[in-house]
Design a protein that fits this description.
It is a single chain. It is built from 15 helices and no strands. By secondary structure, the chain is mainly alpha-helical. It has one domain. The model has no long low-confidence stretch (mean pLDDT 83).
């Protein structure tokens, strides 16, 4: 074949280090995600509680603001319960964001046979998973620990000297609790996306995992009379873990608060940790089994 135009020139620009090349995946994925006005509007909506909580912190620390608003009673001190509830609200919102975004991260690559193309580049399967996971980690971090930790820093700045050093446990609870929640949502979301090709069904399955786990736990409790069936209730398990990392009083039964059961006892804390780690490990295993390069014969 004759070549009429020799306009091709090889790329001569700088090369990204191999260890960071997987970041091309989240870069383009995030760009595509934020092209959706629905997702962009939802992310903006996730900051409405943050603004309300920031205003509450300012009012609690400003006598002038309370005088303008006509508040005569001294407000409650901004303590660990405040940041715990702020993280609960942001975690609730992050779950719905995961249910909408996660199904489109892996499934299209498998449906359209793009995985062999990825793996024929300088990508390993681990780097592919890291690239896809980075999308959810970035989005969920943006609406979980980042705004709540910002609230903690705002309170530290307004409360005066000594408050930050005496409340470091709360910062630890915010970051650690959010990290556990993000890891669980990320691995579950990617696993569901890898095994279910239809977006609506995948989103429904992710929601169903949480609600069916809760329903199974309550059915187990009603039939057998103990709380070990709640080992599949991720909302309950993450509540136990979050209370421990925040240092909240564990003598108050979470079962009593969540399910209105007088005298009910909670699962041991080690069981909650073990169940969450097992869920993450199982999701990782399912994801690894699905992401296998296959030879395509035409």
């Amino acid at each position: 074949m004759a070549v009429y135009k020799r306009a091709y020139r090889p790329y001569e620009g700088p090369l990204t280090a191999e260890r960071w090349r997987f970041l091309v995946l989240p870069r383009y994925a995030l760009q595509e995600i934020f092209e959706s006005r629905v997702i962009l509007a939802f992310v903006v909506l996730c900051f409405v509680p943050f603004l309300a909580e920031a205003a509450a912190i300012y009012v609690a620390n400003s006598g002038a603001a309370r005088a303008v608003l006509g508040i005569s009673e001294a407000p409650r001190a901004v303590e660990r319960e405040f940041f715990f509830m702020a993280l609960v609200v942001q975690g609730f919102l992050s779950f719905f964001l995961t249910a909408w975004v996660a199904p489109v991260l892996v499934s299209p690559d498998l449906v359209n046979g793009a995985l062999p193309l990825y793996l024929s580049r300088p990508f390993t399967r681990l780097e592919y998973v890291l690239g896809k996971a980075a999308v959810l980690v970035a989005l969920l971090s943006l609406i979980t620990w980042v705004p709540v930790l910002t609230l903690w820093l705002l309170q530290a700045g307004l409360a005066g000297r000594g408050w930050m050093s005496s409340h470091l446990r709360q910062a630890f609870g915010i970051t650690t609790g959010a990290a556990i929640w993000i890891a669980l949502l990320t691995l579950l979301g990617l696993a569901v996306s890898a095994w279910i090709r239809w977006r609506v069904v995948a989103s429904g399955a992710l929601v169903g995992i949480f609600f069916m786990g809760s329903a199974f736990g309550e059915a187990w409790y009603a039939l057998i009379g103990n709380s070990w069936g709640r080992v599949g209730n991720f909302t309950y398990l993450i509540g136990l873990v979050w209370r421990s990392v925040f240092g909240l009083a564990l003598h108050r039964s979470l079962s009593r608060e969540m399910f209105d059961e007088p005298g009910a006892t909670d699962l041991p804390l080690w069981a909650a940790w073990a169940a969450l780690l097992a869920a993450c490990a199982l999701s990782g295993w399912l994801l690894e089994r699905r992401l296998q390069a296959r030879e395509v014969v035409s």
